[in-house]
Amino acid sequence: MEFRENKAIYLQIGDYVCEHILLGKWKSEDKVPSVRELAVSLEVNPNTVMRTYELLQNKNILSNKRGIGFFIAEDAIKQIKIYSKIQFMDEELPVFFRNLYLLDIGFDELEVRYQKFVKETFTNP
What is the residue-level pLDDT of the chain in tens, covering all 125 positions? Predict the structure, then answer.
């Protein structure tokens, strides 16, 4: 995993975990990799992964079964979408809108590009 400098690593790991859940790679109520396993695979300190898991537990995305490990919450997808939407709207969308304005990109042009992106990225041939 390539980490960006402009965002805390534990938050980027949280994005990684959430993406795996949203893409269906990790299913509801499945056990997630242990703190140590994920730390080794991402080449980070286990304390960083633990901080991520605690954040996701506080957001009701993961649950901790003491002595067993962390599991994906039953309504994790819903919780991820709520959490991610707020984060996107507050942090990324203003920068995006600014660029649209500065580059004089209209919503019509944007819609065409968006539809092409969705078709090429998320539809199977």
Answer: 889 888 999 999 999 999 999 999 999 999 999 999 999 999 999 999 999 999 999 999 999 999 999 999 999 999 999 999 998 999 999 999 999 999 999 999 999 999 999 999 988 65
CATH classification code of 9-76: 1.10.10.10
Q: Do 17 and 52 contact (CB within 8 A), yes or no?
A: yes
Q: How many other C-beta atoms lie within 10 A of the C-beta of residue 104?
A: 7
> How far apart, in whole angstroms, are the C-alpha atoms of residue 121 and residue 118?
5
37, 44 in Cβ contact below 8 A?
A: no
End-to-end CA distance of the chain: 28
Whether residue 72 contacts residue 32, with contact meaning beta carbons closer than 8 Å, is answered with yes
| The residue to which tokens 């991610």 are assigned | 84
Residues pairing with 65 in the sheet: 69
* Residues 33, 46: Cα–Cα separation, whole Å: 12
Q: Where are the domains of the chain?
A: 9-76, 88-122
Q: Output the pTM of the full model.
A: 0.80
